[in-house]
Amino acid sequence: MAKKQISALDLATKYLTKLGVQKTVLNTALLPSKYEDVFMCVPQRKSNVVAVNKRTLSGNQTHIAVSKAAWEVFFTPAQTSAYATTRATCETDQTFNFFEANLFDMLDRRSRKTSAIVEAATPIGTYSAGTSTILSDTGRKWIGEQSGETQVHLGRITGDSNTFKDFRLGILIDDYLLFFKEKHTDKVLAVSVPQEYARRFKISNVKAFKPSPAAVSKQRTATTTADALYVASATSSSVAPAYSPNTPQAAPPPSPGRSLQAPRMCGLPSCRNTESSTSPRRWSCIQA
């Protein structure tokens, strides 16, 4: 059976939905227009995982090597070009957003996969399953050199936050690592996905698919129909008018036996005597 083709954001959305993250949260946190078009979605090799996840295997490198196509997630082209010329290392903190449910699932899975290669290890923090909480913390990033070539690296044990250390602890060899750079900020969304889940799909090298013309037309028709129904219901005569405390109200009817005729003055400039049709009186006032 052919695998379903999905985008990188689709993969993150499907996996986090499976973990119980609320759709209302995902609709905002994984909104395609929130992120730059440049992103990273690659399986992690032996050289990219922490030491306790590759015991008995050769190689001491443990930082994450960012593929060249994703350098702009972490550094501007001017920064990477400057390093190629000056070889002056640019190292700083990178702010990441993590889904707490993602950390819990990956660390819980790791605890059941201990072997000669995956050594038992206790996470620094405590995380909950099925929560929609998003955590924010930092990890180190720098521009360096590998075999004479410029390379962007992530992860220093002496500079990473505890959350980033735990995030990396849950990533085993061949698990997928996804990075999405927010527009207009320096924040990067980090998601890790188990290889056994990711391999169920054919992952396209795009951040998110654009809706087809047919899908756009269908949505437009649905919106137009909904608007028409709303207008029809709002103007229907069967709908009782709504009043607010500030809406002018009609005056109450007069009490029986009382006239609406305005009171009359006697006519003298200084006089304040009045009469009504219901209580006629004789004028007895004298002009001063």
Could you explain how this protein is built, in words?
With 288 residues, the chain is α+β, with helices and mostly antiparallel strands. It is 26% helix and 22% strand. The protein has 7 helices and 11 strands. The protein has helices at residues 8-18, 23-29, 77-86, 100-111, 162-169, 195-198, 213-234; strands at residues 4-6, 35-43, 64-66, 90-99, 134-146, 149-154, 176-182, 188-193, 201-203, 264-265, 274-275. The strands form 3 sheets. The protein has a 7-stranded mixed sheet with strand order 2-7-8-4-5-6-3, sandwiched between helices. Strands 1-9 form a two-stranded parallel sheet. A hairpin with a 2-residue loop joins β5 (134-146) and β6. The model is unreliable at 283-288 (pLDDT under 50).
Task: Present the secondary structure layout.
Elements: E1 4-6, H1 8-18, H2 23-29, E2 35-43, E3 64-66, H3 77-86, E4 90-99, H4 100-111, E5 134-146, E6 149-154, H5 162-169, E7 176-182, E8 188-193, H6 195-198, E9 201-203, H7 213-234, E10 264-265, E11 274-275
Parallel strand pairs: 1-9, 4-8
Antiparallel strand pairs: 2-7, 3-6, 4-5, 5-6, 7-8, 10-11
| H/E topology pattern | EHHEEHEHEEHEEHEHEE
What global shape is seen?
elongated
N- to C-terminal distance: 111 Å
> What is the share of helical residues?
25-40%
Strand content: 15-25%
- Derived structural class: alpha+beta
Uncertain segments: 283-288
* Rg from Cα: 36 Å
Number of helices: 7
Mean pLDDT metric: 84
**Which strand order spans the largest sheet, edge to edge or round the barrel?**
2-7-8-4-5-6-3
Number of strand elements: 11
Largest sheet data: 7 strands, mixed
